[in-house]
Recover the amino acids of this structure.
């Protein structure tokens, strides 16, 4: 088969409630982009797509666009960041 | 570069004296902003707020914010605290304090700091009403 | 019109908790500015500051300032205190505190308030150095 | 003689040190303007004239220009206001 990589995804706030969990490990094809990964999450958790236009993601604690074509790497920690409301 | 006081905690922020945290003999000005849970949001009675954070990233973003603030304004000391978990009405969820030689730097630094914190730092607030709850989105 | 807390006193301002003075269940934001005696002015070591005021006019001007602030920004509570007499290094000579529903009002009100207080209110500061003293003129 | 009026003048900060006192009553001709009164003080306390371009005055707790042609009235309280430095 195609060599895989493990990605940890973290869910917060509304995305956590939609996913019903705060984190999970997913196995992806090598070279999967951030955008493709986010699309995969929308397929896995259809109600997440409601956040499509307002959410950000982070990769290893750095903000990234959910439309980024950058490839994820084995062991990356990706977080779904709904609109923040600290303060 | 002086070190900044940064704390993300489940404890009450009232345990900290924000002005004292930024005390400096060379400072003539101290500015403090405190955000508290108010009793109404959008006309509905609020019971409490519940905060959660992506803690390591929130700490990193607050540290970056401190660096950004110090690039813009000459400060003596800078302190930022954010509480997580349940914050009842009247209690503080966040404070930012800065001291400087003259007043303008501390005042503008705190104003910029709270605006940026609300825009960028991965922390979320759930408003709990008598008849339900909702995740807030900063828009002010 | 809610009443404002105004005090001109020879006592230490540290006896007052500025944030608490403007506490309001309906406020989500509290902004505080504190001016303190710093250890150097114009490169000279300062021993202390001495403040004097035209007290009845200073009180009147601070009350007018409160009215002016409230015309510009919707506030919950507003408090202004100024100390007179000797103020040693590290101690507070003035504070302004405001609370509001959202953050911008309290922050801008306090900023405007300290600027106007320094420009208009008949209070004078003498800087006492090791080798003499001088009457200060606000120019910042 | 010309009917007189009593005016109380208050001195603060540098003006107090120049006058060597914090207040005094002066007798003036009826109708004396603020400007004429200030000129009289400059004659009485020559070093006060150093404040000419920076000072304000107040009349009964209201700011006024030292060049005001408004007439003072019996019993008025006039204060010499050097540049303020509160805060």
């Amino acid at each position: 088969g195609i060599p895989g990589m493990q990605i940890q995804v973290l869910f917060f706030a509304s995305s956590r409630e939609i996913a019903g969990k705060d984190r999970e490990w997913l196995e992806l094809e090598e070279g999967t982009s951030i955008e493709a990964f986010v699309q995969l999450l929308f397929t896995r958790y259809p109600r997440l797509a409601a956040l499509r236009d307002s959410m950000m993601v982070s990769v290893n604690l750095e903000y990234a666009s959910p439309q980024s074509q950058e490839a994820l790497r084995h062991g990356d920690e990706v977080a779904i960041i709904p609109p923040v409301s600290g303060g | 570069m002086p070190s900044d006081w940064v704390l993300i905690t489940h404890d009450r922020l009232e345990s900290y004296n924000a002005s004292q945290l930024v005390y400096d003999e060379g400072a003539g000005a101290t500015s403090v902003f405190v955000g508290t849970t108010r009793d109404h949001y959008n006309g509905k009675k609020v019971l409490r707020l519940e905060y959660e954070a992506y803690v390591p990233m929130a700490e990193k973003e607050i540290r970056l914010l401190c660096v950004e603030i110090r690039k813009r304004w000459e400060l003596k000391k800078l302190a930022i605290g954010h509480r997580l978990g349940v914050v009842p009405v009247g209690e503080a969820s966040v404070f930012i304090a800065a001291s400087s030689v003259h007043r303008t730097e501390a005042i503008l630094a705190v104003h910029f700091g709270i605006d940026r914190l609300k825009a960028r730092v991965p922390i979320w607030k759930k408003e709990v009403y008598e008849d339900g709850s909702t995740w807030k989105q900063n828009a002010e």
Q: What stands out?
A: Strands of chain C lie at 5-9, 29-36, 40-41, 44-53, 77-83, 85-88, 92-100, 123-129, 132-135. Chain C touches chain D through 27 residues (CB under 8 Å).
